[in-house]
Amino acid sequence: MNVTLWAWSLTLLGLLALILIDLWIVDRGEPRVFTLRQAGAWVTFYVALAAVFGVCLLLVAGGGYSAQFFAGYLTEYSLSIDNLFIFYVIMARFAVPRANQHKVLLIGILIALLMRGVFIVVGAAALARFEWLFYLFGGFLIWTAWGLLRGGGDDDFKENALLRWARRVMPTTTEYHEHRMTARVNGARVVTPMLIVMIAIGSTDLLFALDSIPAIFGLTKESYLVFTANAFALMGLRQLYFLLGGLLERLIYLSKGLAFILAFIGIKLVLEAVHTTGLEQVPQVPIWLSLVVIGATMLVTTVASLLKARRDPSAVRSLHGDASTPVVDTERMPN
Predict the structure, then answer these.
(1) What is the pLDDT of residue 207?
(2) Which residues pair with 190 in a beta bridge?
């Protein structure tokens, strides 16, 4: 796929324009609650935009690249839905006021998008030079899938090194000051919990990229498609957070569905690696089959989860954390 510098530039400018429009329409003025109607409209807008982009790829680059984009987008979107559960946990642990949650998600996701862009560039360059990495990626996805099947996913939030470092070196306050990230308390400039939770969201989502980036490279080797699929999946993520609400807790089999998808892509990567390193008789998985498997798996997983939740309410996952107690280092508060 020959993507010119102009195409890359226009794509990046288009994504930047969407972010600015999002900021202007949604985040201007005082913090306010994100309504279900607003969330639904924005999710519909971003999904439709991704569909239009995929159709444009069909017209300009052909069905193969369009199918690769849609397969990658569905995979990233499905992985993002599972990530949302951790976002709920983080919001509860840090007691983020509902009116401020959409700004926390926006900044955190922007940080993750920038860092994923670096991951994609490095990953594409490494894969182009070292073909044996396809075996490593495939094995990692299969191992991740086995971990999901065995443990059902990890719904507990654990502070990573970046978050621990930030909380250790920054003077913080336990009080939220509307949507501001810093405030002046007793004459000293301090960090509010808004900045800490933004770091938590952004760094946690970056850890999720360890699964999602190898997974999408198993569906397409085109850096342009990898980046755009990630970008579209992340752009509508915060609106999806508010739209799903309690429904996310009812997706009981989501981790198992994702495990099947990751294992499928991992096996696909290994088969392609074997095929390209000399054993041409080894079959390759066509992209149309990948698209069908991913879509069907998510559909079956969703329906089965909702049916199970209706028949057995005790099986529904619950959020962890105490929404009434912010997780802030009070020892570093200014006197």
Answers:
(1) 67
(2) 183
User: Which residues have CB under 8 Å from 132's CB, separation 6+?
Assistant: 273
Tokens 């992340």 correspond to 234
**64-96 as b/e: b if 16+ CB within 10 A:** ebbbbbbbbbbbbbbbbbbbbbbbbbbbbbbbb
Classify 156 in phi/psi space as left (phi over 0), alpha (psi -120 to 50) or beta.
beta
- Nearest 5°: phi and psi at 225? -70, -35
| Cβ proximity of 291 and 241 under 8 Å | no
CA distance 46 to 52: 10
pLDDT given at position 33? 59
pLDDT of residue 12: 87
C-alpha to C-alpha distance for 252 and 99, rounded to whole angstroms: 28
What's the pLDDT at 158? 62
State the Cα–Cα distance between residues 284 and 181, nearest whole angstrom.
50
What is the C-alpha to C-alpha distance for residues 205 and 234, in angstroms, rounded to an integer? 10
Query: Which residues does residue 185 pair with via DSSP β-bridges, in sequence order?
Result: 188
At residue 290, what is the residue type?
A: S
- Going by DSSP bridges, is the β-strand pair 182-185/188-191 parallel, antiparallel, or unpaired? antiparallel
pTM of the model as a whole: 0.72
| CA proximity to 241, closest of 34, 29, 28, 23 | 34
Q: Which residues does the chain have with pLDDT short of 50?
A: 320-335
Tens-digit pLDDT profile for residues 215-250: 888 888 888 898 888 888 877 777 787 777 656 667
- Measured CA to CA, the distance from residue 278 to residue 275 in angstroms comes to 6
